[in-house]
Design goal:
The complex is a heterodimer of chains A (405) and B (95). Helices cover 27% and strands 27% of the residues of chain A. In chain A, strands 1, 2, 8, 9, 10, 11, 17 and 18 form an eight-stranded mixed sheet that branches. In chain A, strands 5-6-4-13-14-15-12-16 form an eight-stranded mixed sheet. A two-stranded antiparallel ribbon of chain A has the order 3-7. Chain A has two domains: 221 residues, FAD/NAD(P)-binding domain, CATH 3.50.50.60; 148 residues, 2-Layer Sandwich (D-Amino Acid Oxidase, Chain A, domain 2), CATH 3.30.9.10. Chain A is of the alpha/beta class and 405 residues long. Chain A is globular and about 65 Å long. With 95 residues, chain B is of the alpha+beta class. In chain B, 18% of the residues lie in helices and 35% in strands. A four-stranded antiparallel sheet of chain B has the order 3-4-5-6. Chain B is globular. The chains are: A alpha/beta (405), B alpha+beta (95). Chains A and B meet through strand 12 and strand 15 of A and strand 3 and helix 1 of B.
């Protein structure tokens, strides 16, 4: 069933009786060609692009809980491609391009909003660094705009550019960046994958891998054994926990990152702003809440909730650029678990075990990468060669001393 | 989180800096034949368990001691706190 404005009107006039479930509730088969572990944004995107780009059949996504219940539902919804290094920027720019066409591609309203992202500059050195970054972005085909305080004041008149503790001296803007309704990304990919025949199997927890003579044959799950020609781990946040079942140690620590949303306000914040003198970033959701976040708590955690010292630190960052937020009540705060890799970059690679593949290490930047991660992981799974935009995201970069990419 | 410092008593965790898995206490022998491989493991790979985790905390804004703490990564509950120097001496190190 295709969604359209006409369809909405027709359903409205006929009592909304024609809507079908967005995806089938599949039961696991005995064997799949591709078995993706993890029904988050990345896993669902991987399954979708396997089917769409590579014509793969017999694909399943298995998920411990319900799809979209992990980090794709817990992030601060920002998309951007303002990266510096050659190993990263083409990948994230590809991702941003996929975001731009996502809704038409999936026939699903993901509320992609290119409202722009602005990284504030507070010192000369920071302006130099952002000028360099902006140039690197432009060289890789992305957009970048070094804004003056005058331009910033026009767009964000409430920012104090003169006598704050950290006066604003300019900013690096990426006008194509913005926000996306994160839950809709999981649901949109799930629906599109389902329509291409992908089995989405929820409440199906992996209990172990069946590995014989160095080859992964399938996984033991809470719903029985499922065999697969290729098994693809895609559970960033829980990678350590899952891959321990295959006796793999990873260059990853799991850390908790907190996020916050205030009560709904009238529109005051037209784009995404990041503070350059502390770790704080924020945007306003379409419901009106100010969505913001900051630093990791800074110790290993799988608890999906953080502690108060970081809440204080993030709120200090908020007060430094938005003193008006001091009068706003916080509605909710929560934590998500990040795969923090040792060099801050992700991994999309084969493992040393045949037929077992790994996607993870997204640190606190996984959401924006969702489409390109699925795209490149599907390419790796289908062809056994890394996608040209993901050649730097290999396990062996640490041993080779290439982990500055 | 409150960390019960063996010398100073209960202290707020914000006084400490987290220094990672306590396995970092056991630095490989640089003269071993496979020292390079051992150091790659030591530098980059982690057990990263969901459950009890033994880890190093540095009392940066206190007495600057290193502590070895066992903490559950799923609940943040701390079950054991020792001075890292005591732990190292217990393994036959001079300090």
């Amino acid at each position: 069933m295709r969604y359209s404005g006409l369809r909405v009107i027709k359903e409205a006039l006929t009592g909304h009786k024609g809507w079908k479930p967005t995806w089938r509730d599949a039961t696991p088969q005995n064997h799949y060609d591709f078995l993706v572990i993890g029904g988050g944004g990345h896993g669902l995107a991987t399954a979708y692009y396997l089917a769409r780009n590579h014509g793969a059949k017999k694909i399943a996504v298995i998920e411990k809980g319900w799809i979209g219940g992990g980090n794709v539902g817990r992030n601060t919804t920002i998309v951007r491609s303002n990266y510096l290094l050659d190993g990263n920027e083409p990948f994230y720019e590809h991702s941003l391009k996929l975001w731009e066409g996502l809704e038409q591609d999936l026939n699903y309203n993901a509320m992609v909003s290119q409202r722009g992202i602005l990284n504030l500059v507070h010192s000369d050195a920071q302006r130099d660094a952002f000028t360099r970054r902006g140039n690197a972005m432009i060289l890789n085909g992305a957009d970048a705009d070094l804004m003056s305080t005058k331009d910033i004041q026009k767009r964000y008149p409430f920012l104090n550019v003169t006598d704050a503790r950290f006066p604003i001296k300019g900013g690096l803007a990426q006008h194509r960046g913005g926000t996306v309704r994160h839950d809709a990304v999981a649901w949109g990919y799930a629906r599109a994958a389902d329509q291409l025949g992908v089995d989405i199997i929820q409440n199906c927890e992996v209990l172990g891998f069946r590995i014989e003579s160095g080859k992964c044959l399938g996984v033991e799950t809470s719903r029985g054994y499922i065999g697969a020609s290729k098994v693809a781990s895609c559970v960033a946040g829980s990678s350590g926990r899952l891959m321990a079942k295959a006796e793999m140690r990873l260059p990853i620590e799991s850390h908790v990152l907190q996020a916050f949303v205030t009560e709904g306000l009238k529109p005051i914040l037209p784009g995404v702003i990041t503070f350059g003198a502390g770790h704080f970033y924020c945007s306003q959701s379409d419901k009106g809440g100010i969505v913001f976040g900051g630093d990791l708590d800074g110790y290993n955690s799988y608890a999906q909730r953080g502690n108060l010292p970081v809440v204080e630190d993030v709120c200090e960052g908020a007060m430094a650029i938005f003193p008006m937020l001091g009068r706003v009540r916080l509605l909710r705060m929560w934590g998500g678990i990040m795969d923090m890799s040792m060099d801050g970059s992700p991994i999309i690679d084969q493992t040393h075990i045949d037929s077992l593949y790994f996607n993870g290490g997204w640190c606190y930047g996984g959401f924006k990468a969702t489409p390109a991660s699925g795209w490149c992981y599907a390419h790796l799974l289908a062809t056994d060669t890394p996608h040209e935009f993901a050649t730097a995201f290999r396990f062996d970069r640490f041993a080779k001393g290439q982990n500055d990419r | 989180m409150i960390i019960n410092h063996p010398i100073l008593g209960p202290r707020d965790s914000a006084e400490f800096t987290y220094m990672g898995d306590a396995a970092l206490l056991d630095r490989p022998d640089w003269q071993a034949k496979d020292a390079l491989l051992q150091f790659i493991d030591y530098g980059y790979l982690r057990d990263n368990p969901a459950g009890p985790h033994t880890e190093l905390w540095y009392h940066e804004q206190g007495d600057r001691s290193f502590l070895v703490i066992t903490r559950d990564t799923t609940t943040h509950e701390i079950s054991s706190v020792k001075l890292a120097s005591d732990v190292a001496r217990g393994r036959g190190r001079s300090k």
